[in-house]
Amino acid sequence: MASTGQKEESKKFMSKKGHMSTYSFSQKDAPLFENFLAYTKKGIAAFHTPGHRGGRGCEQLFRRWGGRFLRLDLTELKGANLEQDPDFLQTQAEELAAEAFGAQKSYFLVNGASIGVMAACLALREAGQEILVARNCHLSVVNGLILSGLKPVFLPPTWIAGLPCLPSTAVVQDYLRRYPRAVGLFLTNPGYHGIYGPLAEIAALCKAQHLPLLLDEAHGGYLRYIDPCIAEASSVGADLWVWGVHKMMGSLTQTGMLHIGPDFPYPAQLEEALQLLSSTSPSYLLLASLDSTRRQLYFKGRKMFRRAAKLGSILREQVKELPGLELIEPVVLPAGYGLDPTKIILSLAPAGWSGLAAETVLRRRYRIQPEYADRDYLYFFISYAQEKREIFRLAKALQSLAGTAESAWEESAVCPPPWNNRPLAQTPRSAVDQPSVYLNLADATGRVAAGLVAAYPPGIPLWVPGEEITPSMVEWITAFQQQGGYVRGLKNGQVKVSSA
User: How would residue 21 be classed by pLDDT, with cut points 50, 70 and 90?
Assistant: First the structure.
C-alpha cells in the first residue's frame, strides 16, 4: 500500500490552445469527483443528456429524496474534464487508485465487480483452452467462461463448517501438475462468508510455474487495513484482482475496481474486453463515488476498518456464551485459514432455529436485516459505519432467539451442495450455443445443463452449463426451496437443459 507521504508527480497535458498545461493530482485529491462537482455549480444551461436536467425533470418524490445529488448524474463533458478528452479525469482517478492500492493499473467499474471478472476471462480467451477455477466461484465467473469459450477445470474447495473456502495448497499443487497447459488459475479469496486461505503459498506456486493468478477479491479488499499480515492480492503479487467496492468499502451500489499487477501478460486484451462489456454511457455519479471512496480509504482506511473489526469483536463477546447459539470462531479453522473479523457467522440450531426461519423473525419482529441466511447459518456483515447501539440491539435480539426453543425445525448435519466432481460433458460456451429445452426440475436428472443454477446469495453455482445434472443436485435444490431459500436460474420451476 502506498505511503501518504509518497512524492507527487506533476502530469502535463496539451490544452485546447495547443499549450502544455500542468495538473498535479495527489491522493489528497478526488479529481473526477471534485471537478464534476465544481461543474454543477457553474450555472451552465444544459442542452445534452441526461434529460432530467440535474434532477429537475425527475418525478417529484424521487427528486425530493435525490436532492442535489442528482446534479452529479452527468455524462462525458469537456467542460467538466478540464477541457481535456472525455476520459481524462477518470484516467487520472484510476491512476491514483492504482497508486493507493498497489496495482500496476486500475480500472473503475460501474457494472459491479462482475464485469471485471468477465473481462478477465475474455482477456485470457482461447476457445477450448483449459483454465483452472475454484469450484466455489461466483456465477459471474461462469458467465465469463461462457463469453470466452474457455474450458473450466474445477478445483474442489476446502470445506470448513459446511462452507466452501479457498482450495488447499496441496490441491492447487496437484492441479498445476496435472494441467500444465492451463492459461490461468482463477480463485475466490476470501469467500463470501469471510474465510480466507493460504494465498501466499498458492501465489508462490503460480509464480514458479509462470501461471497467471487471477483473484475474485470482491469481499476482501479492505482486509489490508485490519491486519497487514493477512495475505491479499497485491501483497502476494497476483496478476489480476477484482473488488466489489460497493459491498463494504463505501462506494455506491454497482461500483467496483479491477486491478492488474506488473506481470499480467494480457493488458491490451483486458482493455479490449472492458470496452466490449462496458457501457458507452457510464454513470459519472458512480464514478465519482469510486473516486471519493479511494481518497477516504487512503487516508482513513485503517481507522474505518479497525473500528468495524472492534464492533465485530463486541458482538462476538455478547453472544459467544449463549447456550442456544453456535458461533464460528477463528480458532476452529485449519492452519493457514483465517476469518474476517467483520463477518459474523452463527447458528441458532441448538435452540431449534433454522437460519432461514431466524432471519424471518429478526426482520419482521426485531427490524434487523442480516446479510443473508441459509438452512444452517445467519450471516452478519459489520460495517465501519455501523452504530454501536445497532450492535447491542442485534445482540439482544440474538439472546432472545437463543433462549426461545423453536420446535418447527430439527438440527441436522450441515449439508454442502452436492457438486459434481466429474469433468464437464461440454464447455459452458458449447452448452449454451446448442439447442435447449426447459424441463421440470424433477425431470432434469441425467441431462446436460444449458444454463446455470445457483442459491442466491451467495451466487455460487450448483451446476454450470455443460455439466450433467445429478439426482443429488435436484434433491438439494428442492430441499433448499422448501426451506425458503431463493434459487436463481429456474424459470417457473423449470431448468434449461441441452436438447441434443
Answer: low
What's the rounded Cα separation, in Å, for the pair 230 and 228? 5
- Which residue, among 229, 182, 178, 172, has the nearest Cα to 205 in the 3D structure? 172
Q: Residue 309 belongs to a domain with what CATH number? A: 3.90.1150.10
* Domain co-membership, 249 together with 378: no
Q: How far apart are the first and last CA of the chain?
A: 52
Q: What are phi and psi of 119, to 5 degrees?
A: -65, -35
**In this structure, what CATH number is given to the domain that contains residue 195?**
3.40.640.10
What is the model's pLDDT at position 413?
57
Record the cell numbers describing residue 422, joined without a space: 466429474
Average pLDDT across the chain, whole number: 92
Burial of 424 from C-beta contacts in 10 A (0-12 / 13-18 / 19+): buried
Amino acid at residue number 354: S
Digit-coded pLDDT (tens) for 453-476: 998 888 999 999 999 999 999 999
Q: Are 138 and 218 in contact (CB under 8 A)?
A: yes
Do 173 and 115 share a domain, yes or no? yes
Q: Which of 196, 268, 266 is nearest to 233 (CA)?
A: 196
Q: 44: Cβ–Cβ under 8 A, 6 or more apart, which residues?
A: 79
- The residue type found at 370 is P
Where are the strands (E) in 262-329, listed by range?
326-327
> Model confidence over 213-257: pLDDT tens digits?
999 999 999 999 999 999 999 999 999 999 999 999 999 999 999
Indicate the number of domains in the chain. Answer: 3
Rg for the chain, CA atoms, rounded: 24
Give Cα 297 to chain centroid, integer Å. Answer: 18
Are 322 and 280 in a shared domain? no
Query: Has residue 97 been placed in a domain?
Result: no
CA count, 13 A, side-chain hemisphere, 401: 29
Q: What is the CATH number of the domain that holds 441?
A: 3.90.105.10
Helix axes 388-402, 355-365, angle to 10 degrees: 120
By the 8 A CB rule, do 312 and 342 touch? yes
For the cut 60, the answer to whether the pLDDT of residue 297 exceeds it is: yes
Domain that holds residue 211: 102-288
Reading the block at residue 433, the C-alpha cell is 450455443
Query: Is the model's pLDDT at 406 over the cut of 90?
Result: no
Rounded to the nearest angstrom, the gap between the alpha carbon of residue 223 and the centroid of all alpha carbons in its chain is 14
The alpha helices in 371-490, defined as continuous H runs, are 388-402, 428-433, 471-482
Q: What's residue 404's pLDDT?
A: 87
d(CA 170, CA 494): 39
Distance, in Å, from the CA atom of 288 to the CA atom of 282, rounded to the nearest integer, reads 11
- Does residue 157 share a domain with residue 223? yes
The angle at the Cα of 465, spanning 461 to 469, to the nearest 5 degrees, equals: 75
Band of pLDDT at residue 419, cut at 50, 70 and 90: confident
Please give the pLDDT value at position 1.
Answer: 44
228 in a structural domain? yes
